[in-house]
Amino acid sequence: MRTELRLAWALLLLPLLGCGTTSYSSDLRRVHELSRAPVPTRLSDEEVEEADPSAALAAPLTVEASVALAFQRNRHLRASLRELGVARGWLAQAGTLPNPAFDIRYQTDRAQPIQGDLQLEFGLTRAIMATQRAGVARAELATAQARVAGTTLDLGYAVREAHFAAQASEER
Predict the structure, then answer these.
(1) What percent of the chain is modeled with pLDDT above 90?
(2) DSSP single-letter state for residue 44
(3) 65, 104 contact by CB (below 8 A)
(4) Residue 165: how many other CB atoms lie within 10 Å
(5) 96: which residues sit within 8 A by CB, 6+ positions away?
(6) Sequence-separated (6 or more) residues with CB below 8 Å from residue 2
(7) Which of 26, 136, 148, 170 is found 20 to 30 A from 11 (Cα to Cα)?
(8) How many CB atoms lie within 10 A of CB 98?
(9) Left, alpha or beta for 36 (phi > 0: left; psi -120 to 50: alpha)?
C-alpha cells in the first residue's frame, strides 16, 4: 500500500519536473559581452516608431550617438533580436517532459457491478531524449547569440564607416 501511494505521488509530481524559466535579459547580456556594443532592449515596432529621433539629432551627431540611433531604428537588428527570443523559447521547450495522457472508461449495468479501465500513456522516448534535445537547443541558442552579436558588430562598423566618410567629405 505504501509503495502504491509513493508511486501515485511521484506520478502527480512528475509534470513539475518539466518547468523551466527563460531569461531574455541574460541573452542580451551575453550578446553585449560578445559584441561590446550597447544592444537595444526595445523590440516593438510601435515603440520605435513613437520614439522621437529629433531629441538625439538636436545636438551635434557624434559617432556613438549615430550608432545608438542606428541600433534603435534598424529593422534587421530587431529581427535578429526576435530570433534570439525564438531560440530561447526552443530551449525552454526542449527540456520539458511530455505530458502524460490519462484515459478512464467505465461501464455500468444493472446486472453487474461497475467495470472500469484506467489507462496512462507517457512519451518515454521524448523523456529519455530531453537532455539531448536541451543540449542541442543550448547550442542553437549560443549560435543565435553569436549571430546577433555579429549583426550588432556589422551594423556598428557600417554606421561608424558612414559617419567618418561623411565627416571626411564635409572636411574636403
Answers:
(1) 20
(2) -
(3) no
(4) 10
(5) 18, 19, 20, 130
(6) none
(7) 136
(8) 15
(9) left
Phi, psi of 101 (to 5 degrees): -110, 130
Cα–Cα distance between 148 and 137 in angstroms, integer?
16
Q: Which residues pair with 101 in a beta bridge?
A: 121
Give me the mean pLDDT over the 71-82 stretch.
87
The answer, yes or no, to whether residue 2 has pLDDT greater than 80, is no
What 3 state SS string does 71-97 have?
HHHCHHHHHHHHHHHHHHHHHHHHCCC
pLDDT at 25: 79
Q: Which three cell numbers stand for residue 158?
A: 557600417
Give the 3-state secondary structure of residue 40. coil
Angle between helix axes 75-94 and 24-35 (nearest 10 degrees) is: 130
- Binned at pLDDT 50, 70 and 90, residue 20 comes out as very low
Q: How distant, in Å, are the alpha carbons of 33, 50, 92 from that of 141?
A: 15, 31, 11
In degrees and rounded to multiples of 5, residue 24 shows phi and psi of -70, -30
- Looking up cell 515603440 gives 47
Spatial neighbors of 44 by CB under 8 A, at least 6 apart, are none
